[in-house]
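Sequence and fold:
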Amino acid sequence: MRAAVVSKGEFTVEDLPNLVPGPGQVLIDVTRCGICGSDLHARLHCDEMADLAAATGYDRFMRSDQRIVMGHEFTGEIVEYGPATRRRWKPGTPVVALPILRSRHQPELTGLSAEAPGGYAEQVVVQESMTFPVPNGLSPEHAALTEPMAVAWHAVRKSRITKGQTAFVIGCGPIGLAVIAMLKAAGVHTVIASDFSPRRRELAGRCGADVVVDPSVESPWAATPKKPRITGASDVLNLGFDAMERLRRIPNFPWWYLFRVMHSLDRGPSGPIVFECVGVPGIIDQILTAAPPLTRVMVVGVCMQQDAFHPATAINKEIELRFVLGYDPGEFRDTLHMIADGKVDPSPLITGTVGLFGIETAFTTLTSPDHHAKILIDPHSNRLTP
């Protein structure tokens, strides 16, 4: 099997022993695999990431001195089954799978663990229970984006955004673009996207953003097409006065029951939903400072450095801060079908394709935001540049 192997930050394309699926596992021929931003970081900073993963309960993350086949955004076709499988699909069936294996109850992150080689290769092993057939003749290019789009869908779902709330997407790299597409698929009426890169702003518009802002010229918070009801703490307090004055006009009305119903349903005045998709120190504090009261901030960008913000700012505005990671199998399956059914279009994210020998160039190219968003790998292609 031919694969791209990384060790000490250097890629080499090698012939490796053929993979053998274990109990409950399936071998697939890889047709496409996406390059993820976490791959870019893991290539050079995997030891830091491994230390962090170990501190949070996962001690199998790749290390720089290991030989790793990366790649966790893949699709392929069924080749053969391991023991103790149900053999649900015929050989040649196109599938996608969650990038995780389990052996003796030990989870292994595919493409980020030495024990689970990833999709920068001609073949990859997946868990049958975490595998899904690709419906509606969906192309490999689009099927391979199931994984990153599922990350975005998880963030949108966890945000509990309503169609009438305004969404701000700060940072329009691949994950920000995916969030924009998923917000529009969810029917959100107003999505405001912000990025310094002209290329990323262009892609944000193609993904469905209603307003696209260059933050060096205009504040995203001032770009909303409709004036928000709540812009400061005084607005929140005045809402309380207005509500009580109206309720007190009703004779013998137990107004406090209305508040109890609102509390039980978690309903009440609310601000916009902000998706932080940058992942560098200082961004969270900037958002807390600029965002209006009662905002919910979804932290989707992965910041690997220590960060700092002013809790009192968030407290005074009663801002809700949520952190999200990954997706569950149901979200992954639903994302696949949203793409296959045409409810969401991931094509604007795809900006290039390379073969295994082009991975080094693709990684270098992706360090700049001015040209590419998502580069796919076709392990059977000889293309060297995206």
